[in-house]
Design brief:
The protein has a single domain, classed as Spore Coat Polysaccharide Biosynthesis Protein SpsA, Chain A (Alpha-Beta Complex), CATH 3.90.550. β2 and β3 form a beta hairpin. It is globular and about 60 Å long. It has eleven helices and 13 strands. It starts with 6 loop residues before the first strand and ends with a helix. By secondary structure, it is of the alpha/beta class. The model has no long low-confidence stretch (mean pLDDT 93). α8 crosses α9. The strands form three sheets. The chain has a nine-stranded mixed beta sheet. 33% of the residues lie in helices and 24% in strands. The structure holds uridine 5'-triphosphate (UTP). Uridine 5'-triphosphate binds next to α5.
């Protein structure tokens, strides 16, 4: 039986340059999609999948994220004094339990691979999940839960993928596919941002991974790659030479909230699922004579 995945790493130390000036002082992970900060979608998805401990890799200017997952005494007391008990209890239920969340720092934004490596001491010698918070997932069950179900069958390393169109493949990490194995398929190669027309498939890596701990050893010696950053994909490619990787096609929708369009798309489409505003938003969209 595959060794259980109990910890998840959420890297939030990036600069968010695509969202300036909004992200000059506000972490991009705190931008709200409808009424939840982007990062909360990802934490909820992790706990829903059975993760017991979330490790944030943060950087300067990201303390708001830490505060968001803390108990806010004055807010709780004021809500209760004013009879808004349900709101107080919802906030309470959404706060991770004591000791279930850790924060470590990536002092310099040297790349995603380096950010994951910064969590090595907390992760220890167990398989772990990585969730990129700006990829907001809409699926039932959540994306990581779908991956965990496949992991229970096939073990190894798991990468979630989703279909893109050939004209957009050059923007993403793309996998090469091998034999089907239950709900998963073998990954035989990966290429980060392939030149137009050279992508080995139309399946892009959408920001969720289950990795075996040896990736940390590989990351410790990983040279810089694309963009002068230490890339997670490069380390996974090294590990692919000796360990199995499986892809799971996410049954749901991915919103790239690190880009302006993906963020707006998430706000509009998830608002249509939100009971407080659904009708008004649907009415607004219908009324637009575009
Ligand atoms: P992105 O590629 O979206 O980079 O990182 P970014 O710096 O956050 O944003 P842009 O491209 O400048 O707009 C993907 C994830 O990896 C984290 C980011 O915080 C994001 O969650 N990351 C990236 C780090 O934690 N450290 C890094 O050095 C790079």
């Amino acid at each position: 039986m595959a060794q259980p995945v109990r910890k998840a790493v959420i890297p939030v130390a990036g600069l968010g340059t695509r969202f300036l000036p909004a992200t000059k002082t506000l972490p991009k992970e705190m931008l709200p999609v409808v009424d939840r900060p982007v990062v909360q979608y990802c934490v909820d998805e992790a706990f829903e999948a059975g993760i017991e401990h979330v490790v944030f890799v943060t950087g300067r200017g990201k303390v708001l994220i830490e505060d968001h997952f803390d108990y806010q005494y004055e807010l709780d007391a004021t809500l209760r004094e004013r009879g808004k008990t349900a709101a107080a209890e919802t906030l309470d239920a959404q706060t991770p339990g004591a000791g279930r969340i850790s924060f470590t720092r990536q002092q310099k934004p040297l790349g995603l691979g380096h950010a994951v490596w910064c969590a090595r001491d907390i992760v220890g010698d167990d398989p772990f999940a990585v969730l990129l918070p700006d990829m907001v997932m809409d699926g039932e069950p959540g994306c990581l839960k779908q991956m965990m179900d496949a992991y229970d069958d096939v073990g190894g390393n798991i990468i979630s993928v989703q279909e893109t169109t050939p004209d957009l493949a050059h923007k993403y990490g793309i996998v090469a596919t091998g034999a089907q194995k239950g709900a998963a398929f073998e990954i035989t190669g990966m290429v980060e941002k392939p030149a137009p027309g050279t992508a080995p498939s139309n399946l892009y890596i959408n920001g969720r991974y289950i990795l075996q701990p040896r990736i940390m050893d590989i990351l410790s010696t990983q040279a810089t790659g694309a963009g002068g950053e230490i890339q997670l994909t490069d380390a996974m490619l090294t590990m692919l030479k000796s360990e199995p990787f499986f892809g799971v096609s996410f049954n749901g929708r991915t919103f790239d909230c690190g880009s302006k369009f993906g963020f707006l798309e998430a706000n509009i489409l998830l608002a249509l699922k939100h009971e407080d505003v659904r009708e008004e938003v649907a009415g607004l969209l219908k009324s637009l004579d575009l």
